[in-house]
Protein backbone atom coordinates (compact mmCIF):
# COMPACT_ATOMS: atom_id res chain seq x y z
CA UNK A 1 0.00 0.00 0.00
CA UNK A 2 1.23 3.47 -0.90
CA UNK A 3 -0.05 6.11 1.54
CA UNK A 4 0.55 9.71 0.52
CA UNK A 5 0.49 13.05 2.32
CA UNK A 6 -0.07 15.93 -0.09
CA UNK A 7 -0.61 19.58 0.82
CA UNK A 8 -2.27 20.77 -2.38
CA UNK A 9 -2.37 24.50 -1.46
CA UNK A 10 -5.89 24.95 -2.80
CA UNK A 11 -7.67 21.95 -4.29
CA UNK A 12 -9.57 23.91 -6.91
CA UNK A 13 -6.43 25.66 -8.16
CA UNK A 14 -4.43 22.39 -8.15
CA UNK A 15 -7.15 19.98 -9.25
CA UNK A 16 -5.49 19.19 -12.63
CA UNK A 17 -2.24 18.38 -10.80
CA UNK A 18 -4.03 16.20 -8.25
CA UNK A 19 -5.95 14.22 -10.89
CA UNK A 20 -2.71 13.87 -12.85
CA UNK A 21 -0.96 12.52 -9.77
CA UNK A 22 -3.72 10.00 -9.04
CA UNK A 23 -3.63 8.77 -12.64
CA UNK A 24 0.15 8.46 -12.87
CA UNK A 25 1.00 7.09 -9.42
CA UNK A 26 -2.25 5.31 -8.43
CA UNK A 27 -1.60 5.62 -4.67
CA UNK A 28 -3.85 3.59 -2.41
CA UNK A 29 -4.54 6.36 0.14
CA UNK A 30 -3.99 10.11 -0.17
CA UNK A 31 -4.23 12.50 2.76
CA UNK A 32 -4.75 16.05 1.50
CA UNK A 33 -4.16 19.28 3.38
CA UNK A 34 -4.88 22.96 2.80
CA UNK A 35 -7.93 22.38 0.61
CA UNK A 36 -9.06 26.02 0.92
CA UNK A 37 -12.52 24.76 0.00
CA UNK A 38 -15.81 24.51 1.83
CA UNK A 39 -17.48 21.13 2.24
CA UNK A 40 -20.00 22.12 -0.44
CA UNK A 41 -17.38 23.01 -3.06
CA UNK A 42 -15.12 19.99 -2.63
CA UNK A 43 -14.71 18.45 -6.14
CA UNK A 44 -16.17 15.08 -5.23
CA UNK A 45 -17.22 14.18 -8.77
CA UNK A 46 -13.74 14.76 -10.19
CA UNK A 47 -12.20 12.65 -7.44
CA UNK A 48 -14.71 9.84 -7.94
CA UNK A 49 -14.23 9.94 -11.70
CA UNK A 50 -10.52 9.41 -11.01
CA UNK A 51 -11.39 6.19 -9.16
CA UNK A 52 -11.24 7.40 -5.56
CA UNK A 53 -13.71 7.59 -2.70
CA UNK A 54 -13.27 10.45 -0.28
CA UNK A 55 -14.14 12.02 3.04
CA UNK A 56 -13.32 15.66 3.69
CA UNK A 57 -13.45 18.38 6.33
CA UNK A 58 -13.48 21.70 4.51
CA UNK A 59 -13.26 25.37 5.37
CA UNK A 60 -13.92 28.20 2.94
CA UNK A 61 -10.68 29.86 1.85
CA UNK A 62 -8.49 28.31 4.57
CA UNK A 63 -7.21 25.01 5.94
CA UNK A 64 -9.23 21.90 5.08
CA UNK A 65 -8.22 18.23 5.02
CA UNK A 66 -9.38 15.15 3.13
CA UNK A 67 -8.69 11.42 2.82
CA UNK A 68 -8.96 9.68 -0.56
CA UNK A 69 -8.94 5.91 -1.11
CA UNK A 70 -8.54 4.11 -4.42
CA UNK A 71 -11.57 2.02 -5.26
CA UNK A 72 -13.34 2.41 -1.93
CA UNK A 73 -14.90 4.92 0.42
CA UNK A 74 -12.93 5.72 3.57
CA UNK A 75 -14.97 5.26 6.74
CA UNK A 76 -14.73 8.44 8.79
CA UNK A 77 -13.83 7.99 12.47
CA UNK A 78 -13.28 11.55 13.66
CA UNK A 79 -13.09 15.15 12.49
CA UNK A 80 -11.39 17.74 14.63
CA UNK A 81 -9.60 17.31 17.95
CA UNK A 82 -10.87 17.60 21.49
CA UNK A 83 -9.66 20.34 23.79
CA UNK A 84 -10.87 23.68 22.41
CA UNK A 85 -14.58 23.88 21.72
CA UNK A 86 -14.27 27.27 20.02
CA UNK A 87 -11.63 26.09 17.53
CA UNK A 88 -13.32 26.14 14.10
CA UNK A 89 -10.21 25.38 12.02
CA UNK A 90 -10.55 22.31 9.76
CA UNK A 91 -7.20 20.66 10.45
CA UNK A 92 -7.78 17.02 11.46
CA UNK A 93 -9.64 14.14 9.82
CA UNK A 94 -9.38 10.44 10.64
CA UNK A 95 -10.73 7.43 8.76
CA UNK A 96 -10.41 3.67 8.36
CA UNK A 97 -9.35 2.46 4.92
CA UNK A 98 -7.80 -0.75 3.65
CA UNK A 99 -7.24 -2.20 7.11
CA UNK A 100 -5.50 0.97 8.35
CA UNK A 101 -6.49 3.97 10.38
CA UNK A 102 -5.19 7.10 8.71
CA UNK A 103 -5.31 10.73 9.80
CA UNK A 104 -4.83 13.78 7.61
CA UNK A 105 -3.21 16.55 9.63
CA UNK A 106 -2.64 20.23 8.89
CA UNK A 107 -0.83 21.62 11.90
CA UNK A 108 -0.86 25.41 12.41
CA UNK A 109 2.05 27.37 10.97
CA UNK A 110 2.50 29.47 14.11
CA UNK A 111 4.09 32.61 12.69
CA UNK A 112 4.83 35.24 13.84
CA UNK A 113 6.87 34.23 16.89
CA UNK A 114 6.14 35.09 19.65
CA UNK A 115 2.41 35.64 19.53
CA UNK A 116 -1.05 34.09 19.77
CA UNK A 117 -0.61 32.09 16.55
CA UNK A 118 2.47 30.38 17.96
CA UNK A 119 0.68 29.71 21.24
CA UNK A 120 -2.19 28.16 19.27
CA UNK A 121 0.27 25.96 17.36
CA UNK A 122 1.71 24.54 20.60
CA UNK A 123 -1.74 23.97 22.11
CA UNK A 124 -2.87 22.21 18.93
CA UNK A 125 0.21 20.00 19.09
CA UNK A 126 -0.73 18.92 22.60
CA UNK A 127 -4.26 18.13 21.48
CA UNK A 128 -2.85 16.03 18.63
CA UNK A 129 -0.58 14.23 21.09
CA UNK A 130 -3.57 13.36 23.26
CA UNK A 131 -5.40 11.83 20.30
CA UNK A 132 -2.23 10.01 19.23
CA UNK A 133 -1.93 8.39 22.66
CA UNK A 134 -5.49 7.13 22.36
CA UNK A 135 -4.79 5.65 18.94
CA UNK A 136 -1.66 3.89 20.20
CA UNK A 137 -3.67 2.34 23.00
CA UNK A 138 -5.96 0.75 20.40
CA UNK A 139 -2.95 -1.24 19.11
CA UNK A 140 -3.95 -0.93 15.47
CA UNK A 141 -1.94 0.03 12.36
CA UNK A 142 -2.16 3.83 12.19
CA UNK A 143 -0.58 6.42 9.90
CA UNK A 144 -0.57 10.06 11.01
CA UNK A 145 0.06 11.84 7.71
CA UNK A 146 0.25 15.53 7.09
CA UNK A 147 1.87 18.91 6.98
CA UNK A 148 3.16 19.29 10.53
CA UNK A 149 4.78 22.69 9.89
CA UNK A 150 7.82 21.51 11.85
CA UNK A 151 11.41 21.27 10.62
CA UNK A 152 12.42 18.57 13.07
CA UNK A 153 16.20 18.53 12.58
CA UNK A 154 18.91 20.83 11.29
CA UNK A 155 19.51 18.49 8.33
CA UNK A 156 15.84 18.82 7.35
CA UNK A 157 16.40 22.33 5.96
CA UNK A 158 18.59 23.84 3.25
CA UNK A 159 19.80 26.60 5.61
CA UNK A 160 19.43 26.64 9.38
CA UNK A 161 20.34 30.31 9.47
CA UNK A 162 17.61 31.23 6.97
CA UNK A 163 14.89 29.60 9.08
CA UNK A 164 16.13 29.93 12.66
CA UNK A 165 13.63 32.66 13.59
CA UNK A 166 10.66 30.88 11.97
CA UNK A 167 7.95 29.12 13.99
CA UNK A 168 8.73 25.91 12.10
CA UNK A 169 12.15 25.66 13.74
CA UNK A 170 11.61 27.01 17.24
CA UNK A 171 12.79 24.76 20.09
CA UNK A 172 9.22 24.50 21.39
CA UNK A 173 7.98 23.24 17.99
CA UNK A 174 10.75 20.66 17.77
CA UNK A 175 10.22 19.53 21.34
CA UNK A 176 6.50 19.03 20.71
CA UNK A 177 7.28 16.90 17.66
CA UNK A 178 9.84 14.84 19.55
CA UNK A 179 7.44 14.28 22.44
CA UNK A 180 4.96 12.93 19.90
CA UNK A 181 7.56 10.55 18.45
CA UNK A 182 8.53 9.45 21.95
CA UNK A 183 5.06 7.99 22.46
CA UNK A 184 6.16 5.22 20.09
CA UNK A 185 5.63 6.61 16.59
CA UNK A 186 8.08 5.99 13.73
CA UNK A 187 9.01 8.87 11.40
CA UNK A 188 8.89 6.91 8.14
CA UNK A 189 10.85 9.31 5.94
CA UNK A 190 13.55 9.70 8.60
CA UNK A 191 13.78 5.92 8.82
CA UNK A 192 14.40 5.72 5.08
CA UNK A 193 16.77 8.72 4.97
CA UNK A 194 18.47 8.91 8.40
CA UNK A 195 21.01 11.46 7.14
CA UNK A 196 18.35 14.01 6.20
CA UNK A 197 18.72 16.27 3.18
CA UNK A 198 15.30 15.32 1.80
CA UNK A 199 12.85 18.17 1.20
CA UNK A 200 9.05 18.13 0.87
CA UNK A 201 8.43 21.89 0.49
CA UNK A 202 9.91 24.63 -1.67
CA UNK A 203 8.60 28.20 -1.33
CA UNK A 204 7.30 30.05 -4.37
CA UNK A 205 9.54 33.01 -3.47
CA UNK A 206 13.18 33.77 -4.26
CA UNK A 207 13.65 30.92 -6.71
CA UNK A 208 13.53 28.34 -3.93
CA UNK A 209 12.59 25.50 -6.27
CA UNK A 210 15.25 26.37 -8.82
CA UNK A 211 17.88 26.56 -6.06
CA UNK A 212 16.58 23.43 -4.31
CA UNK A 213 16.22 25.59 -1.19
CA UNK A 214 13.64 23.45 0.53
CA UNK A 215 12.86 21.76 3.81
CA UNK A 216 10.98 18.78 5.23
CA UNK A 217 7.73 19.55 7.02
CA UNK A 218 5.45 16.80 5.67
CA UNK A 219 5.65 13.68 7.83
CA UNK A 220 4.03 10.25 7.93
CA UNK A 221 4.23 8.76 11.42
CA UNK A 222 3.60 5.05 11.95
CA UNK A 223 2.24 3.23 14.97
CA UNK A 224 4.24 0.11 15.94
CA UNK A 225 1.73 -2.09 14.12
CA UNK A 226 2.14 -0.02 10.94
CA UNK A 227 5.92 0.25 11.34
CA UNK A 228 6.10 -3.56 11.33
CA UNK A 229 4.80 -3.37 7.75
CA UNK A 230 7.22 -0.65 6.58
CA UNK A 231 8.71 -1.18 3.12
CA UNK A 232 9.86 2.22 1.85
CA UNK A 233 9.27 5.98 2.02
CA UNK A 234 10.02 8.88 -0.28
CA UNK A 235 9.01 12.13 -1.96
CA UNK A 236 7.57 12.38 -5.48
CA UNK A 237 9.65 15.48 -6.01
CA UNK A 238 9.07 15.77 -9.76
CA UNK A 239 5.46 16.83 -9.22
CA UNK A 240 6.65 20.04 -7.51
CA UNK A 241 8.27 21.11 -10.79
CA UNK A 242 5.13 20.97 -12.90
CA UNK A 243 3.14 23.96 -14.12
CA UNK A 244 1.00 25.58 -11.40
CA UNK A 245 2.09 22.98 -8.87
CA UNK A 246 1.63 23.11 -5.12
CA UNK A 247 4.62 24.34 -3.13
CA UNK A 248 4.64 20.88 -1.46
CA UNK A 249 5.52 17.59 -3.15
CA UNK A 250 3.58 14.40 -2.47
CA UNK A 251 5.31 12.53 0.36
CA UNK A 252 4.69 8.83 0.88
CA UNK A 253 5.22 5.63 2.78
CA UNK A 254 4.76 2.12 1.42
CA UNK A 255 3.51 -0.63 3.75
CA UNK A 256 3.03 -4.35 3.20
UniProtKB/TrEMBL annotation:
UniProt enzyme class: hydrolase
Gene Ontology MF terms: double-stranded DNA 3'-5' DNA exonuclease activity
One Pfam family, short name: Exo_endo_phos
Matches recorded under SUPFAM superfamilies: DNase I-like (SSF56219)
Keyword Transmembrane: no
Domain Endonuclease/exonuclease/phosphatase: 4-248
Coiled-coil spans in chain: none
Alphabetized UniProt keyword annotations: Hydrolase, Magnesium, Metal-binding
Family, similarity comment: Belongs to the DNA repair enzymes AP/ExoA family.
Protein name in UniProt: Exodeoxyribonuclease-3
Protein's organism: Sphingomonas japonica
